[in-house]
Design goal:
By secondary structure, the protein is of the alpha/beta class. Helix content is 37%, strand content 17%. The protein is globular. The model has no long low-confidence stretch (mean pLDDT 87).
């Protein structure tokens, strides 16, 4: 209770709580799932920054294969290492290996600039018409602008998107709990 000095008596200050929007059970589940996914993505990025560069290259190739690149008719090949010419992997999209996608994996802390992207584009002249650079960090605006202006098909994948793809395609991720949530079948009635 607060003392009202002017009236000489005690008064009680009441704070009215604003009405809180009530979430439906489905909205609470969706919110909780979003929080879990964000936490898993953050952990994935942390773990990726601690693996060796070679392991990171293999993870990236595994993810791309799981996404359907180098599927039934194609294959993938790890070529990273000393003297790799700026290419860490090759995805062969057809059985005869005529259509190739070059892959560069950048396990970096700082942003990837234009120079590494430009070097990768130059390496594509050796036999690929498509390429993808995946990083644990981000790309600078200059790197993104270079790709936008380039006539080559290059896709840049930053860390947050990379982690999201790993969750979506369950690479390095396991689904622990499946909740069956009943829902009224509106078409039934």
């Amino acid at each position: 209770p607060a003392k009202d000095e002017h009236a000489g008596s005690s008064t009680t200050t009441t704070h009215l709580a604003l009405p809180q929007p009530t979430l439906t059970p489905q909205e609470r589940i969706d919110t909780a799932r979003g929080e879990i996914v964000a936490d898993v993505e953050s952990t994935i990025l942390q773990r990726l920054s601690n693996v060796s560069p070679k392991r990171f290259e293999h993870i990236v190739l595994q993810l791309l294969a799981k996404m359907g690149y180098a599927g039934n008719l194609g294959a993938s090949e790890h070529v990273g290492g000393t003297g790799d010419g700026g290419i860490d992997g090759i995805l062969y999209l057809d059985r005869l290996r005529l259509e190739r996608v070059y892959v560069q994996a950048k396990r970096w802390q700082g942003s990837v600039g234009e120079d590494p992207v430009r070097s990768f584009a130059g390496a594509m002249d050796l036999g690929a018409n498509k390429g993808v650079i995946l990083t644990t960090s981000t790309f600078t605006p200059a790197a993104r602008k270079y790709v936008e202006k380039s006539h080559k098909a290059i896709r840049l994948v930053e860390g947050k998107e990379l982690a999201g793809l790993m969750v979506e395609f369950e690479v390095g991720v396991q689904a622990e709990v499946v909740i069956r949530v009943p829902k009224v079948d509106e078409d039934f009635f």
